[in-house]
Specification:
Elements lengths: L5 E10 L4 E6 L3 H13 L4 E7 L11 E6 L2 E6 L2 H14 L8 E9 L5 E7 L7 H13 L4 E5 L1 E2 L2 E2 L8 H4 L3 E2 L3 E2 L2 E5 L4 E2 L4 H12 L4 E8 L4 H6 L27 H17 L4 E5 L6 H4 L2 H10 L4 H18 L3 E5 L12 E4 L4 H9 L3 E3 L27 H6 L9 H4 L2 E6 L9 H8 L2 H9 L8 H17 L10 E5 L5 E6 L4 E6 L2 E8 L6 E5 L10 E2 L4 E5 L4 E9 L9 E7 L3
Parallel strand pairs: 2-3, 3-5, 7-8, 7-20, 8-15, 15-16, 16-17, 17-18, 18-19, 19-20, 23-29
Antiparallel strand pairs: 1-6, 4-5, 4-6, 9-10, 11-14, 12-13, 21-24, 22-23, 24-27, 25-26, 25-28, 28-29
Helix pairs in contact: 1-2, 3-5, 7-10
Bound molecules: ligand TNX.
The site of ligand TNX has 9 residues, from loops.
Length: 588
């Protein structure tokens, strides 16, 4: 996972030897070391040939060929990224450390459909230290994602040290409290702080680079900037001082388009660009309330002087000034699709979060666009019944809904569709306060993201994809990732179900009408070592409920309803939420 673009299984088998023999040409020592560590993890030797020379046009800069024959394993690529991805695939093909000592022959030719395969993380609403960030990047790279969008600033906290403006972190990095879960009117009164030093940022940038992940830093402007304005009140248009925001939602406190603000942002961005070598700088641009601008005499005179008629025009002026500065430093801006309203240049890349609409508008205008629609690709949405899940922002996003999402809108012409440079998941953290919860929100959903980011078209049905998740869950569990345990699935056998519909995936309840008589129900779970417990009396199953050991056989009479509820439990004791099957004997 993600599925390779082309894979052919051959009749050959490769019996793995005890010794490691690696022959490499053109490959960096880092990739050779990675190959060794993968073989060590699988407790095996192998005869492995790594060849890297830029001549295979079919592969591009990130593709690879991987062959397993009776004689050994070979990986060929044009560059380091291709070799790295070939090795990730090898890691998934090798038998487990205690598994059989041979491999099936395969010929794989693989390359990504999308150049931007991103995952975002909001560290402002809740802060995550660099060890957590590195684990996040690790798992991204394993599934061939290559852009880490680091949302470093927002109303609720400024998280990156800027040498020239120490108050950004000493004041902007702390809030006096946080709204209570489930009650936005109550503040817990617990001081909440966190930021990265520049040395830590450099460390993470280097760590990501070694895994072919580029970091896109986001410095929000002109909205979502209350933490910065709390630190340096002159940045705002208001006259009264503000504190770092303690509640979620959108703040009215925004940067004033003054020379002081532009000077500040240029100084901040200069430091940011020195830390992050990637091509893109994310300047935010979403959700900018204009009340502060409307009240400001300074904004009124600016509009008069520059003949700007609307507040969208003021944001356009703001964005273009910043864009000119960023471009003068050889970089490009990317911003949320809200920046389209003010009329940015063609060079600006757009991150489309308002469904596909922003992307369609951007692609038609000729702007490069990353698809990250609120809904399927918002990893802060619920993954199941809100009654069973930890508090989330709303909506529903499951591996299946993500897998079904098509990143290139069908209404675009071929020419316009070239503007869709990739796809990304966003993980906002208003309700995500711990690393454990963070990985619960990320995994296994991110595997579905990798499947729509890397191959195109999708080689598997959504059902086959969900079934294939199992092997990956084993790996994630073995490596200490606290993924969400997938809900058990039901299959009805021996009786042709009259109607079997997943009435509402959000409540994980299936409704089936069956012919009266004997009905056999099978329960399965994607996690290979998950044990299933169930009830048939309408109560919520617990770890003490009946253990599932094989098909449940029921005899249903006409109009009789039986409800089967099941949970999956891992050896670690972590359990899924319940899935319910409501079976009704059809009326004669
Ligand atoms: C909107 S998406 C925001 C974020 C919130 C998110 C919650 C976007 C560009 N802005 O500030 O965290 O909704 O889903």
């Amino acid at each position: 996972m993600p599925s390779p673009q082309q894979i052919v299984e051959t009749a050959e088998r490769y019996d793995l030897p005890a010794a490691v023999t690696i022959s490499a040409s053109g490959v960096s020592p880092d990739e050779i070391a990675l190959a060794r560590s993968i073989l060590r993890d699988h407790a095996t030797g192998a005869t492995l040939t790594l060849a890297q020379s830029a001549h295979d046009a079919a592969l591009g800069s990130e593709g690879y060929r991987l062959n397993v024959t009776a004689a050994g394993i070979s990986i060929a690529a044009n560059g380091g990224a291709g070799t790295f991805y070939g090795l990730q695939t090898l890691d998934q093909l090798l038998p487990p450390a205690r598994g059989e000592r041979s491999m099936r022959g395969v010929e794989i030719v693989d390359w990504p459909a999308h150049a931007w395969r991103g995952m975002h993380l909001d560290v402002s609403r809740h802060f995550f230290g660099i060890d957590v960030v590195k684990r996040y990047i690790d798992v991204m790279a394993r599934y061939k994602l290559n852009v880490f969008h680091w949302h470093l600033t927002d109303d609720q906290g400024w998280r990156i040290a800027i040498a020239r403006y120490p108050r950004l972190t000493s004041v902007g990095g702390c809030r006096a409290g946080t709204e209570m879960e489930g009650d936005a009117t109550e503040i817990d009164g617990v001081r909440y702080c966190g930021y990265y030093t520049q040395a830590q940022i450099r460390e993470v940038v280097a760590y990501a680079k070694a895994r072919y992940v580029t970091i896109v830093p986001e410095i929000e402007m002109p909205g979502h900037s209350q933490a910065a304005i709390a630190a340096y009140p002159r940045l705002g248009c208001g006259t009264s001082a503000v504190a770092v925001r303690e509640t979620w939602g959108v703040s009215d406190v925004v940067y004033c388009p003054s020379e002081y603000t532009f000077g500040f942002l240029e100084n901040v961005l200069s430091e940011v660009m020195r830390l992050f070598p990637g091509r893109y700088v994310h300047i935010g641009g979403d959700e900018v309330p204009t009340v502060a601008w409307q009240r400001s005499p300074a904004v009124r005179s600016l509009m008069h002087k520059l003949h700007i008629a609307t507040y969208a025009g003021v944001q356009g002026y703001f964005d273009r000034r910043i864009e000119r500065f960023v471009e003068a430093h050889g970089r490009r801006i990317i911003g949320w699709d809200d920046i389209l309203a003010g009329g940015v240049s063609r060079n600006a890349a757009i991150m489309s979060w308002h469904g596909d609409e922003g992307a369609i508008a951007a692609a038609r205008r000729g702007n490069d666009t990353v698809m990250t629609p609120d809904g399927p690709l918002y990893f802060d949405a619920y993954q199941g019944d809100p009654n069973d899940e930890p508090q989330a922002i709303g909506g529903l996003s499951t591996p299946e809904t993500i897998y079904r999402y098509r990143p290139v809108p069908a209404s675009l012409t071929l020419e316009q569709s070239r503007r869709i440079i990739g796809v990304q998941g966003n993980l906002w953290t208003e309700y995500v306060a711990t690393p454990q919860h963070l990985f619960y929100m990320l995994l296994p959903r991110m595997l579905a993201l990798s499947e729509i980011a890397w191959p195109d078209p999708q080689p598997r049905t959504p059902e086959a994809f969900e079934a294939a998740i199992g092997t990956q869950l084993q790996w994630l569990g073995d490596h200490g990732y606290a993924f969400r345990v997938p809900n058990p699935e039901f299959t009805i056998e021996g009786n042709s179900a009259i109607g079997f519909s997943n009435v509402s995936p959000s409540v994980r309840t299936a409704d089936a009408r069956v012919a009266p008589g004997e009905v056999s129900v099978t329960i399965s779970c994607a996690a290979p070592d998950g044990a299933i417990r169930y009830t048939i009396d309408g109560t919520t199953p617990t770890k003490a409920s009946t253990a599932y050991n094989g098909p449940i056989v029921l005899t249903l009479s006409a109009n009789q309803t039986v409800e089967i509820s099941a949970i999956a439990i891992l050896p670690s004791g972590r359990a899924s939420t319940q899935s319910r099957l409501i079976l009704t004997g059809a009326a004669p």
